[in-house]
Amino acid sequence: MDTHAAIKTPPTASTPRLTFWQLWNMSFGFFGIQFGFALQNANTSRIFSTLGAQPDDLAFFWLAAPVTGLLVQPIIGYLSDNTWHPTWGRRRPFFFAGAIAASIALILMPNSSALWMAVAVLWMMDAAINVSMEPFRAFVGDKLDSSQQTAGYAMQTFFIGCGAVIASLLPTIFSDGFGVSNVPINGMIPDTVRYSFYIGGAVFFLAVLWTVLTARETPPADLAAFRAERRHNRSFGPAVRGIFGGLLQMPKTMLQLALVQFFTWIALFAMWIYTGTSIADTVYGSTDPQSPAYQAAGNWVGVMFGVYNGVSALAAFILPRLARMSSRKAVHAVCLLIGGASLASLFFITSKTMLIVPMVGVGIAWASILTMPYAILAGALPPARMGYFMGLFNIFVVIPQILSSLLLGWMTTHAFGGHSVKTLVLGGACMALAGVLTLLVSDRAQAETA
Q: Has this prediction a pTM greater than 0.85?
């Protein structure tokens, strides 16, 4: 265990209270990150299916996302903790590098000519998104004191919602608004999807660039001591001990939140993978990815995802107020219970229009998922290792995704008779259980600042 890195890393200077527009600038990059992430979530299963993937293989092909997160985020968090450049700062070099790679992957994805290529590009895309995204979580902890951290994560949630709404609707906008073809020709990806990903690549890069150019970072209070510590921490032995040894140093609050995250992300992964096939089957009456009905279902799922992300953008400004009136964990518990019931209700809906209603509940849960756990966690972490522990926390997001990738396909085929809508019911039950477990979390930071 590398206690040297954990204890002696010099702190940064005191964190001043930021204005609304400073919060806006430091969070704007998340608009681009979520733009790319939403395109991935809403269209990856559709792309895989169009290129010949079978429904029970979809979850397995999605393994790329959690595995890259598991490997990348703790490492990037550790490296960013031990980075300082007089111009680029600590986190911004990683924002920028990830944005370049993610933009390239977004352009390559809809041009995949075979299933294996699409799976390989998903690995690249998700790794790049993680390189940009993980330091953004630590960025809030770096720049804001505990009284502003919930507001900081809420601002991120607002941009996540806005970016995801536009990205999720893009294929429908191209199809219905501009008459772009939504039908796969010769087994290739429809033009609506291709053009959406091209725009996504540009938006990802430009939004992150805005934050890189407009947000400033505070240097370590003792820069000489920090540089000496960095040389130690970046040598091979201490780096390996620092990255893996942190598993034994996790605060109690982090362990409690880990269980909540585990069941939450089983639910989310089930939703992202199987909503498309479920809606195509139960509402549009098609299981053939080459059919117009199946592709129309894919567009409508984009609309549904746009709704839940739009709701989350609005809820982001309400949740901090509710948290101050009650508590962050109480708000998160209620939001997860609402989201779980909403996701499970898709089983009973056969009307295209009525599918929008449960997405409102999912959006309320999504807003809280993106805000409350990170706000609670930030108050329990040592400032000098904020990036590392935020990256390590991602393990409890990716492990359930890995298990879902390995098991949900089998369960859908063998336990649910190929009816993927039942997998969504399972996801709803998991999210509701996460809500109950939230009540066991200790949020000492909020109690101390109340």
A: no
